[in-house]
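Running this now, will post back.
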Amino acid sequence: MIINDVLNEALQLYKPSQEEEKHLMDLANKIIHRAEKYSPNYKSILKITLEGSLAKKTWIRGREEVDIFVHFDSMIPREEMEEQIVELGFKILKDLDGKPRLMYADHPYVEGRINNVVVNIVACYYVTPPNWLSATDRTPYHTRYIIEKMKPEIGDHIRLMKAFMVGCGVYGAEIKVRGFSGYLTELLMLNYGDFIKTIEAISKWKPPIIIDIEKYYDSIDEVLKLFLNQPLIVIDPVDKHRNVASAVSEQKLSELILASRLFLESPSIKFFKPKPPIIRLSSIRRKVGKRKLIGVVFKLSRWKPPDVLWGELRKSEEAVKRTLERLGFRVYRSDSWTDEEKTCIILCEINNDKLPYTRLHQGPPVYHPNSLEFIKKWKDNPEREAGPWIEDSRLYVLRVESVVDVKKLLKKEIEEGRVALAKGLIEDIKKGKITTSIENLMRNRKLRSFIYEFVEASLPFI
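Update: finished.
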């Protein structure tokens, strides 16, 4: 298929119509009007603006969002600003039947859905660069920068790039994804010019990649010293001390590079709209076969903002993985999932669900002061299967493992506090269930999709 035909088809799928744009703008104006109605009650509010992809006209169909920013006087204390934005946000969304909920990024904001459109009501300080007081203070300047620099024809190319990233599973800077933000995507397009040029450039990327549109820095070394160990560095045009791509993981960066190479080799609409797999219990069972999985499944005792929850879940996943490796299991891969309401799971694929009956236990060299103690300890120890013997200069024994089952071992480690779980999840995980069988897990349809993707372990664009 010719690449331009693919891009035209993708644009038809993802470019909103004039009616859709009008509907979204009407909703935004309605929210702004409501915010302006309440704002005189808060003396520190200076103005209210529309920001984000709607203001820049770069959003794609299916990801409609309205980002309303409330600008506060820089003299108001942070706690007061946070209290006021939560109160104001809840008022506005309740008035418009938006079912508000408290979210948290750098500081609290309010999110709700109105007619399937995500609405974010966010606080920022009314400041000038570089006098930032909070992370959101830059956003109005990001919007202004893109609008000023973006040529009219680039809007569609940005939409194509966002749709491509969504299709390839790398779009979104939130902790759940650790991929490319909308602003980062827009900057890439400004830097390279159009969709094809951007894809061609990405296909040749090799970390570290440095993009400095405003040419703030004279040398690569200067940038690398400032942003240590970051595979992709995109200097923020409104703040030269910030890397817009800092949230992008090496994995998602690698996925985008590979997807770009494959797309250029064989252009297809599948990169923009992957065909959803048909998930059957029989196909999952067949995929699992004799493979060994261990899952930690637990319920949340209280609701948490998604970014907080995903951060805790990723940390706990890494801790479980490290513990299994310390116990003597080889972990092939791991992942975690949550419905962001109640259910969470940490899933690992391991080489075996049992340790060997015996384990080699290394002692000190014979010339070490503790060598005689080691011999006394192990000579008549019931856990000794063989030894002590000397290999080179060290003492060794073969010891019997009293517990070899992975479930029992991991459960004991968690109960005795030897797994570095996120503090906010410790008690919930202790009350959870450790399982090596996927049968019960597959009863939950959402969980079933996660398990299928885990055992399939294939990238969406391959």
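The CA atoms of residues 295 and 347 lie 4 Å apart. More later if anyone needs it.
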